[in-house]
Structure formats: C-alpha cells, structure tokens
Amino acid sequence: MKVKRIISITIAAALAALSAVSVSAAQLTETNRSGNTEVIAHIDGAAPGDVSYIITIPDVVDFGTLAIPADDNDDYNKDVTYAVEATEITGLDTAKQAIAVYVKDQNASADDRAFQIANKENSAIEFNYDVYRSTETLNESTRVNNGDFFTKGYYLTSFNEESQTLNGTLRFHQKQLYGQNIAEIAGDYSGYMVFFSTIDNV
Amino acid sequence: MKNCIFKGACVFFMLFSLFLLTVPAVMSAQSGQGGSTEVIARIEPETEQTSEATQPLPTSPEPSDSSPVQTGELIAWYAFIIMFVLGGTMVLVWMNSRSEH
Fold first, then answer.
1. Which residues of chain B neighbour A196 with C-beta distances below 8 Å?
2. Residue in B closest to A181 by C-alpha
3. 8 A C-beta contact, residue A75 and residue A92
4. pLDDT in tens, B48-88
5. Helix, strand or coil for residue A35?
6. B63 touches A: beta carbon within 8 Å
7. What is the pairing mode between strands A115-119 and A51-56?
8. In chain A, fewer beta carbons within 10 Å around the N or the C end?
C-alpha cells in the first residue's frame, strides 16, 4: 500500500513535469525572447492535412560600437548581417501556399514605422536603422522599410521550402550621430525587431 | 485527515497535469505567431572616441552576433524544477507523517 502511494505520487510529479515542458516549448512570451517560432495550423479550403513550420530568426543582432563621424557624409554606415531561415516546413501545398514573414519595430505604429534603437538609460534618445533583405545589394528596392506597412509589419520574405534562408543586412547610418553631444548619447542601445509569420495563399 | 489531504492533492496534481497536456494543442492551433530579435549597439564615452572620429569607418558587413534559437528551454527547466520540488516536498512530508504513526 505504501509502495502504491509512492508510485502514484511519483507518476503525478512526472506528468506535471512533462506538461510543464510541453507548454513552455510551444509558447512565446515577453520574457522568452527566443527566435524560434513554431506554428501548427489547419487552413480551410486547402488540401486536407495540417501545416506546420518553424521559422528561425536571430536572437540578437549587434551593431557593436558606434562612433560619431568626422563629417555628415553618407559614408559612415555600420552594416551587420542577419539570417531568417525556414528551418522546417511540413504539409504545405507549395503550388497554392507560402509562409510569409513580416517584420516591424516593437514600437511601430501607423505614425511611426521606423526601426529604432533607444538608449537604455534614456529611452528618449533614439536612432534609426534600416533593414535590407540582401547582403549584396543595398538600395531602395531591397530596403524592407521602404515597402508598404501592414498591421503585421513590413513584408520581409516568403518561404515555400524547407531550409530556404534569407540573408539580410541591418544598416545604421552613423551620420545621425554627427554633431551630437557624446556625453549625452553615450551608453548602450537596444531595440527589437518583431517578426510575424503567416500562411498565405499564393 | 492528513492522508486524505495528500490523496486529494495527488489526484488534483494528476488531473491538472492532464489538463496542461491539452493546452499546447489548443493554443498553438492558429496561424500568425511571431518572435522578436533584439538589436543592440553601444556608443562609447568621449575619451574612447578621439582616435576613431578622424577617419571614415568601414562599411563591410560584419557577421551578426546571433546565438542559436533556444525556445523556452530555460522556462521549461524552471517549471520542471518547481514541479519536481513541489512533488518531492509532498512525498517527503507524507512519508514523515507516516513514519510518525
């Protein structure tokens, strides 16, 4: 009898632990800034079956140390690369569907859609950066925040096959720092790009 | 009395665990979820800037400092540890009460 009680309590504890793991792995919360997005969905009107995918985005992109340029020319750009990958796709009808990825600044609104990083000590000090969907050609046609802005954000790319990767660039125009008071703007800066994934009919 | 309380707690524990098992399937059955990427930078104070401000800075892309994706592992481990400690505490208290009898 004693053994049966110990066994039943142990089974209860194991079930609780397993459920805790499965719940946490499927959720993205404010404290979980991981870039893994896992979605399981059923699309009405599409071929029978569930569509599931995992889009991998970087956890952190670091511009490094920025410096005030000697003049206000446009030569002082700080570029860093990032990658968004369709890590896993199953059940997608590639002839009719694609996984669209959108991106926006965490504080973006209809009136202010810029990608920004803010001083951690004084959030009123902000600087903009641009997002490109290319690492080689950085112009208006590849600039993500040059396109239409939707509620979900700017359209970034679409995936219809597993292992497809978008290699892009974040560009910080250090010209913004020219003429600034270094004592006022010195410090650590942070901002967030929020990605949104959805299954679109093509 | 104590045995009844612990039996009830065990039953509640098991039922709640079974309920939690169904939650991920319900919450994840929707399209359009997302995640976020932190973008960071640093501006050094003036004393460290003097030599850098006199010449153009390179524009070649640098590899991003990105770490592999780790979805919810830390939270999952915290939840597991909390549940394990609670369960273990219940077992130890119950065993102690039994030994006293």
1. 32-34
2. B46
3. no
4. 444 444 444 444 444 444 433 334 445 566 677 777 777 77
5. coil
6. yes
7. unpaired
8. N
Nearest to B87 among A13, A117, A183 (CB): A13
CATH of the domain at A151: 2.60.40
Strands A97-105 and A115-119: unpaired
A100 Cβ neighbours under 8 A, 6+ residues apart? A155, A157, A158, A197, A198, A199, A200
Answering whether pTM is above 0.95, one says no
- Which has more confidence, A100 or A46? A100
DSSP B62: B
> Which residues on A lie below 8 Å from B72 (Cβ)?
24-28, 32, 34
Q: Quick one: what percent of chain A has pLDDT higher than 90? A: 58
Domain extent for A51: 34-201
Per the structure block, which two tokens stand in for B92? 């130890």
Alpha-carbon span A191 to A178, nearest angstrom: 21
Tokens linked to A83: 């990658």
Locate the domains of chain B by residue range: 1-6+73-101
* Residue of chain B with shortest Cα separation from A137: B61
- Phi first, then psi, for residue A71 (nearest 5°) are -145, 180
Domain count, chain A: 1
Record: contact A70-B42, CB cut-off 8 A: no
How large is the ipTM?
A: 0.75
Helices (H), chain A: 2-26, 182-185
Of A23, A38, A68, the CB nearest to B23: A23
